[in-house]
Amino acid sequence: MPRIHDLLDQLASSRPQHALLLEPDTTTSAAALQAMSQALAAEWAAAGVVAGDRVLLVAENCAAHIAAIMACSRLGAWSCGLNARLTAAELAAFAAKADARLACYTVAASPDAARHAQAAGTQPSAAVPGLASSAVRAASPATPQELAQEVAAIIFTSGTTGSPKGVLVSHRGLMHFAQVSSRSRGLTPQDRIYACLPMSHIFGLATVLMAALAAGSSLVLRSRFEPDDLSHALAHLEVSNLLGPPTLFSRWLAHLQQAGVTQPHAPRLRYAYTGSAPMDMALKARVEAVLGLPLHHGYGLSEYAGSLILTSLAPDGLPRKDQAVGFLAEGAELRIVDGQGQDLPTGQAGEIWIRGPGLMPGYWRDAKATAAVMRPGGWYATGDLGRIDTADGAVFIVGRLKEMIIRSGFNVYPAEVEAVLLGFGHIALAAVVGEPEADGNERVVAYVEMQAGHQLDEPALQQHLSSRLAPYKRPARVVVLPAMPMTANGKLLKRGLRQAAEAAGITPDPR
Fold it and tell me: What predicted TM-score, i.e. pTM, was given to this entire model?
């Protein structure tokens, strides 16, 4: 069965000196990365790592991190990427969840990883400078051979609304999506992709790394997002592809505004894409005005090894002006169903069910969670709510099933209310949740973060909401936070909203 390191080996064979990874202080060729991963695989094999073992990668983006991902693939071990900025307690919980054989740390690229490594009593790698590792346990129980060969990685879901789960991501799914993503973006060896998205998450691993390997493109690799560095990379490092969550774009635009820059220099940039959160039309308009390019959007999830819906141009060939996430990617299938799993007519909103070559084998050692989302015929119930446009078949995401608010007997989709909030001047981020009331009803509560230097004009906001939303959809309360709680991958963490308010000294509404 082909594995993800085969893409690296093919590139190293055809173009060994290709500048694959461009970091601030060094450039790594395809052949050099191949050699690093081969040496590391040999080192880990000597330490007893075998197919099906889990290897924790406590890391931030760097050449050593990618070499470790490829070394796992060579051994048939499963990489379990964890952001180094997690706490020691969080890392320990994930290590237990993964039942890891080995823990590896990118000590040169990340002060946080170095701190964790020191606490763990690691040994430096002789094969790859900048890495250190330690055995978590002497040996792991054997993994069934078929599953051991099938799985490439465990991606821990961000758990924005609940407990994180370990998604089993297959080699087949990653390699299929690498080809789909690279073709949809027209990637070539001349492209350079700005790569600050963590490779410990599916967005960075699949859409950035795997697509680049499939096309033979280069990565301008960064351990963290810094607005100044992005501006420099666009101006001087020939970046042609820019991908990131909405927060990346909003914070970069805020930086440009503070610096008085209205038109950044980006001579090679030809493609911009945002994902991992709903499209904010106000942000889309601002980004497109600054870059002079369409801001593409799609829909994906860890359980499908990347995106299964890709943004395409509107039927007239022009960039879309709506919030559609686009059309199904090659090989993917989708249904919109009601609460009984019956297909709904085109245009009606319901739960999205999917299947295809990218679908996960299941959640790691969690048969109950896997059974809760899998349906007859191999369908995966996403928990996301969507509809298919009657005009051209484009897919729209309208919210999360679990986040849907029942107000006075009506369904309120938070994404719809959030879009209206974000259309009001100077709101940078918005999150809408339902809070229970004594009579069993739910009230709509909005949390917002303002753009730097701006305060909320609540009377004007209420007028804005009244003209755009039915009364039952309007927030009963708007809470202004100094900063929204976010995951390491740039997703808004809804389950942390109340805690963030309490930390800011905002008392609960007595109503």
Answer: 0.84
